[in-house]
Amino acid sequence: SLSAGLDLPGRFLFATLTLMTLIAILVFIEEAVYIYRKIPSSKRSIIIWINAAAPVISTTSCIGMWVPRSTMFTDFTAGIFFAIVIHKFLMMMIKECGGQKVLLRRFENGHFTITTGPCCCCCLCLPRVPITRQTHFWLKVGTFQFAVFRPVLVFLSIVLWTNGNYVLYNLSPKGPALWISCFIGALTLFALWAVGIMFRKVRILLKCKNIIPKFALYQFIVILNHLQTTIINIFATQKIIPCAPPLSSTARGSYIAQQLLIMEMFLITVISRVVYRRKYHDLEPPECVAEEPGDKNQTP
């Protein structure tokens, strides 16, 4: 078994990381109880979903660390969950503004700035888009499509994997892994783009709701769970991370990614408890809120 093959430092490391995962779960449960009691029902489930992202990723990483053969399933589970969280984060920003109707009324003559990351941050020539029901709808579609198609693609990957056609680290153009990964990457970029557009518009209005540190935590989870893991896996497949019998390079890369995620998600869980637990004043009426400098049609 895995535990039998570990030396004393290895056992201590695994025990410490498992304890950190358990503490993260307990912190989240305590925070969920607080949110359930103190937060209005319209926002309750969305905030609980967002707070659950870090503990869920930590838990799946811990399971993958102890049971190496489950890594594919745990990674897919974390990916599906976070795809839903991205959509929930967009909906949370809308809810914090008072809902769709109130948001449209507040920014009646405003515009969305679409020259933002990760898709169009360099395309400065793109026009600003008026804030209407249609543009608001397409932003929600941008995140909702990821929450729908990511599970479908994951299910397709598992079906191909059970048939022996899908190899996670085989990025050959003839294999399905490369094309499925590219498609998921494109869907991810569009979803993050939609969230970035909305955040850029409401960050001043929701400053009293602590939206900037909340968005920073969300961005950290995106970078650590996707970019960091991808870079480590690439290093492992290119043998930059050397093998250490009985572990191959890819197995060691997977272990390193999982152990880093457990520590990072533990810290994010603790910080999220502080950020989301603060009490905030209600938003000021629309006529008392200053708009972005670019929208001159509204008067503070």
Short key terms for the protein model shown above:
disordered C terminus; membrane; 300 residues; two-stranded antiparallel ribbon; transmembrane helix; globular; Rhopdopsin 7-helix transmembrane proteins; Ostalpha/TMEM184C; transmembrane; 9 helices; mainly alpha
Short description:
With 300 residues, this protein is mainly α. It is 67% helix and 1% strand. The protein has nine helices and two strands.
Structural features, described:
The protein has helices at residues 8-38, 41-51, 53-66, 71-96, 100-106, 133-162, 176-202, 211-237, 249-277, and strands at residues 111-112, 129-130. The chain has 300 residues and is mainly alpha-helical. It has one domain: Rhopdopsin 7-helix transmembrane proteins, CATH 1.20.1070. Strands 1-2 form a two-stranded antiparallel sheet. This is OSTA protein. It is found in: Membrane. The chain crosses the membrane at residues 12-34, 46-67, 73-91, 137-161, 176-195, 215-236, 256-276. InterPro entries: Ostalpha/TMEM184C (IPR005178).
Please specify the SSE layout and strand pairing.
Blueprint: H1 8-38, H2 41-51, H3 53-66, H4 71-96, H5 100-106, E1 111-112, E2 129-130, H6 133-162, H7 176-202, H8 211-237, H9 249-277
Antiparallel strand pairs: 1-2
Helix pairs in contact: 1-2, 1-3, 1-9, 2-4, 3-4, 3-9, 4-6, 4-7, 4-8, 6-7, 8-9
